[in-house]
Specification:
The chain has 126 residues and is mostly beta strands. It is built from no helices and eleven strands. The strands form two sheets. Strands 2, 4, 5, 6, 9, 10 and 11 form a seven-stranded mixed beta sheet that branches. It has a four-stranded antiparallel beta sheet with strand order 1-3-8-7, with no helix packed on it. A hairpin with a 6-residue loop joins strand 5 and strand 6.
């Protein structure tokens, strides 16, 4: 089992940047693919980004491609989401998630992931 704790959310103006962190504890972090999802008020949870267990491949939703970057530091058991050029439409609670897989193609839907953090609020003002 792995426990996940997100941090780094906050209020930022449109065009600004934030970096989210997700610290993992428990079993070997490097055995897990990691994903970021978000949920805006009144909307369904949606996929944002994912990274393979070794950081070799990354995947992004079209809406964030070119603006967001996912990375990980297995020595620190932490995954990051660097968010640049933020837009009001990026306002949501952001969740990190872990999937016990060494596949080169981590999932992009919620049920692919067995472990979730509690979420961190990101608010982008116009």
């Amino acid at each position: 089992q792995v426990q996940l704790v997100e941090s780094g959310g906050g209020l930022v103006q449109a065009g600004g940047s934030l970096r989210l962190s997700c610290a993992a504890s428990g079993r070997t972090f490097s055995s897990y693919a990691m994903g970021w999802f978000r949920q805006a008020p009144g909307k369904e949870r949606e996929f944002v980004a994912a990274i393979t267990w070794n950081g070799g491949s990354t995947y992004y939703a079209d809406s964030v491609k070119g603006r967001f970057t996912v990375s990980r530091d297995n020595a620190k058991s932490t995954v990051y989401l660097q968010m640049n050029a933020l837009e009001p439409e990026d306002t949501a609670v952001y969740y990190c998630a872990a999937a016990l897989t060494k596949s080169n193609h981590p999932g992009t839907v919620g049920y692919d992931y067995g472990y979730w953090g509690q979420g961190t609020q990101v608010t982008v003002s116009s």
